Amino acid sequence: MSNVFIAPLSLILDLRYRIKIISALMIREVHTRFGRDNIGALWVVGEPFLFTLIVVFLWYSVRSPNDNSVPVAAFVLTGYAPLTMWRHSVSRSTNCFQANAGLLYHKQIGLMDILVARIMLEVYGTIMAFIVICSGFYLVGIYDPPVNYGLFYLGWIYLILFSIGTALIVSCLSEQFDWIEKLTSPLLYIMAPLSGAFYLVDWLPYPAQKVALLLPSVHGFELIRAGQFGPALHMHYDIPYVTYTCLFLILIGLILSVNVRKYIEME
Amino acid sequence: MIEVNELYKHYFIHGKKYSILENINFQVPKGHHLALIGRNGAGKSTLIRMLGKVELPSSGYIHHKMSVSWPLGFSGGFQGSLTGIDNIRFIARIYDTKFDDLYEYVDDFSELGAHLYKPVKTYSSGMRARLAFALSIAIDFDCYLIDEVMLVGDQRFHSKCMEALFDRSQNKALIVASHELGLLAQTCDSALIVENKGVRYFGNIHEAIEVYSRSM
After folding, report:
1. DSSP designation for B164
2. How far is B214 from chain A (nearest CA, A)?
3. How confident is the model at residue A12, as a pLDDT?
């Protein structure tokens, strides 16, 4: 239970130990979810890969003839891949503690290790799928690499932080109130068009822009697009705002997590 | 040494508080074999899970001054959809031991052979117990928490466990919850009778069994 933060040495040792535990949990998660049949562990990337590829193709075939303002493949790809990362992180974290209660028999495994392992797996899977698709599209000639890698990565980092914060909150609340689980899938569905994955703030009328920019995820997507397309498009983002809101979400999640252990029933 | 101090445990069912254990105090020094005796629902398993830090006490504290195993029972500690081998790999990773050594020991001790390549959920309770025992004995703990399981194995497995765990020369502490009084008399030296939300300590296991049998 009690982590020792007396000396930097023990902190480093503790951190190495945590990484060991979390990677063991990730490997275990991969094996339980995908098994060892057919491509096995490669499904970690394969699943988001198929998801993203299909959606990109749908958009590509629907929108390409009349709209040339934005390259469609790059636009949908930079929207849908991070959106998948966020949605999967949140939906995989609902009830993830109760589902893994058996792991708590090993006292060195904490609840946060279980959650972090799940989120990291989703983040890793989507980013790898994104890289694979981008490389493929680049070779075919329908995707150009980002103009500004700094902004591009920054946007991804904020969306990862946003995913961690919301997943943390949802995982803790779903353990306390079972109706949260029912609420998450419709909420995630509604959030898909609102999140910023499929529009640019610049396309919205001014009052709607104000509202959209309240959502931290919108800033993340705008940053990714700013990095992807460069100064050709006018992007709206506020780095201090998105930093504070993401950290605030994580803080709320951590506060909720303090008490969550007592809601988990052991076999 | 395990130290238990002013331990309380209660549950809330429909908002109503049900007290399970109240003001429990005891110590288990290294090398001691302690039996937990009590009727079904008295709180033996809850106590064992709290001793293994799997379940949190409502108040009070438990100090581990030696390494303590996870509670060995029918459930917990395993992932049913994973094979025995994958479970061994996972345990090796989180307990920082070498997979090869662990595998060799578990294979030899559990005699599960090819079953190790099948998912644990296909195992019988006896096979599960063999895997659980083999895994935890392979990892060197100072104290083992055992909840009911050893009865499901056959004679041969029984004698193996006796040798590996209950042998005094190993100097392992044991905390065993069981209804099998004969077995407890053979293997333990002291006992806690768990009843009426409290525990009664007996330095002599035979005395404890006599008192418990009379109260039934």
Report:
1. I
2. 32
3. 76
